[in-house]
Design goal:
Strand content: 5-15%
Strand order of the largest sheet: 7-6-5-8
Number of helices: 4
Oligomer: single chain
Distance between the termini: 9 Å
Structural class: alpha+beta
Order of helices and strands: EEEHEHHHEEEEE
Low-confidence stretches: none
Mean pLDDT: 94
Number of strands: 9
Length: about 220
């Protein structure tokens, strides 16, 4: 399993200098992609690197394609949970009791900042697809952290940020994400047992991210 949540680069075809021969594949290159923008209609490749802002605004199916582009795959649900709990299984990557702030799980609500009244709780009517995918949401100082920024949020396998920061899609075809995000690591289960199954595989919002597995 990758040590860090994934960020992505766009995969693009280089302009051909002369007509391609039959069966010849186009030459490819990559370019940067903003982690604050979705990847709809793009060919993207997953990368895992400390110090990068992980990619949010991504669906399960898009995450799967990005892992495949990197020669990897999405982790199965069982793999993800086993990796999160570490070599000596614990409820959180670092132990059985939550320690607020050890992982990125005590952030401020950027959604309330933009869509709440005076910064207070946002009305349910504001939770629209457009608002949930607003590119401003992860750009405020405080919510989303760079991969590995919470140095003590790792387990015995050396995997960082498996609880908090961003939800992480698994390979479950119906749509499952794990681990919670920077505002919640308890509502749908505790720590590594956190599990959300309420969204289909093409759903995405400002809280949904991923990491890849190989083998």
């Amino acid at each position: 399993i990758d040590k860090y949540e994934a960020h992505v680069v766009e995969v693009v075809e280089l302009p051909a200098k002369k007509p391609a021969k039959k069966g010849q594949k186009p030459k490819l290159s990559t370019k940067a992609h903003s982690p604050f923008a979705d990847v709809e209609g793009l060919r993207v490749k997953a990368l895992s690197k400390q110090g990068a802002l992980p990619q949010a605004y991504i669906s399960r199916d898009q995450a799967e394609a990005a892992c495949k582009e990197a020669g990897k795959r999405l982790c199965t649900d069982a793999e993800w949970v086993q990796a999160c709990k570490g070599k000596k299984p614990t409820l959180y990557p670092y132990g059985d009791t939550q320690q607020p702030g050890r992982c990125n799980d005590s952030g401020t609500s950027s959604f309330n900042h933009y869509f709440g009244k005076g910064g207070g709780p946002a009305d349910k009517s504001t939770y629209t697809w457009e608002n949930m995918n607003d590119p401003r949401l992860n750009q405020l100082k405080g919510p989303l952290a760079k991969s590995g920024a919470f140095a003590r949020c790792k387990n015995g396998f050396g995997a960082h940020d498996m609880v908090g920061n961003l939800h992480e899609w698994t390979a479950a075809p119906s749509g499952t994400f794990r681990g919670g995000y920077y505002l919640d690591v308890t509502i749908n289960g505790q720590g590594c047992d956190y599990k959300t199954t309420a969204h289909h595989a093409k759903y995405h919002d400002y809280s949904t991210g991923f990491r890849c597995c190989k083998g």
